[in-house]
Design a protein that fits this description.
With 285 residues, the protein is an alpha+beta fold. It contains 4 helices and 17 strands. Helices cover 23% and strands 40% of the residues.
Length: 285
């Protein structure tokens, strides 16, 4: 037995460190008016217990935790507590550093946590207020929250993993249709969003002034959209040609090494990199 008296009745999550010692996060109903989120660690001979957080229980909230260990073996935990706030805690070696991820809506039932290559957390969870699947990522300054799916009652029992590029892949339950679903980023939409955001910020600008420049920007966007349509149709070779044309208009190289650029600015190099990454993932030569 790890813990007793209704410990771990809901929300347990398990990870094993490099010494094969288990770490378990869980919710502990104490029936004293204050319930606990705890972390238990096997030290080789017995269990060590740490209280992560505490709050008064609220009827109707189904609490959950998700535990991941970083490269130093320190636990990172996403969890629900109190009236349904989603929180994130990381052990720094002496204490828990806790931030609130989402408290605007009631979050409930399930959360899942993953760390990227730099140790930054990515969390998926169910927004019970709106019955949506949400995704939160730490960008170094704060939490960036996106709604992944909002069609019907979706998002329960979500699970997240990150691929080699740090992109989230999410499985979850669609309660409206009784379906298991899978979500992952659309690289074409990411490129188009990047172009739009960069133009709005002034970090990506047409090379030519006035209407000719706007025409070139529109042509670049059309190339990317056309590549997306070809990918959807599984015409990958044709998509590669479209992306190659788009890359030639953003790569900063001059003729004869490449075609004249349509856009410039500090975001142009990153845009070219995003197009190149997509081409690599498609196997473009």
């Amino acid at each position: 037995m790890v813990d007793g008296a209704w410990a771990g009745f809901v929300g347990p999550s398990l990870a094993v460190d490099s010494s094969d010692n288990p770490h378990i996060s869980y919710y502990h109903w104490t029936y004293t008016g204050t319930d606990l989120v705890k972390c238990a660690v096997w030290n080789g001979s017995s269990w060590d217990f740490k209280v992560v957080d505490s709050a008064a229980p609220v009827s109707g909230i189904n609490y959950d935790t998700s535990l991941v260990l970083d490269s130093s073996g320190y636990p990172h935990i996403s969890y629900f507590i109190g009236a349904g706030s989603l929180k994130y805690a990381v052990w720094d070696g002496s204490d828990w550093d806790i931030t609130t991820v989402d408290s605007v809506t009631t979050v409930n039932y399930s959360t899942s946590l993953a760390l990227d290559g730099s140790g930054s957390p990515h969390i998926v969870y169910y927004d019970d207020t709106n019955q949506d699947l949400k995704y939160a990522a730490w960008d170094g300054l704060g939490w960036v929250i996106e709604t992944v799916d909002s069609t019907g009652d979706v998002g329960n029992f979500a699970s997240i993993v990150l691929d080699a590029g740090g992109n989230p892949h999410i499985s979850y339950y669609d309660a409206t249709n009784g379906d298991l679903k899978y979500a992952f980023p659309d690289p074409i939409e990411e490129i188009l969003d990047f172009i739009e955001d960069s133009v709005d910020k002034g970090t990506l600008v047409p090379v030519k002034p006035g209407k000719p420049g706007q025409g070139q920007l529109g042509a670049l966007i059309n190339m990317v959209e056309a590549a997306g349509n070809l990918i959807d149709a599984e015409l990958f070779l044709d998509a590669c040609w479209q992306l190659q044309d788009a890359l030639a208009k953003t790569d900063g190289l001059k003729p004869p090494e490449s075609a004249p650029d349509f856009v410039a600015g500090e975001a142009a190099e990153e845009l070219a990199s995003k197009i190149q990454e997509l081409m690599t993932s498609l196997g473009c030569e």
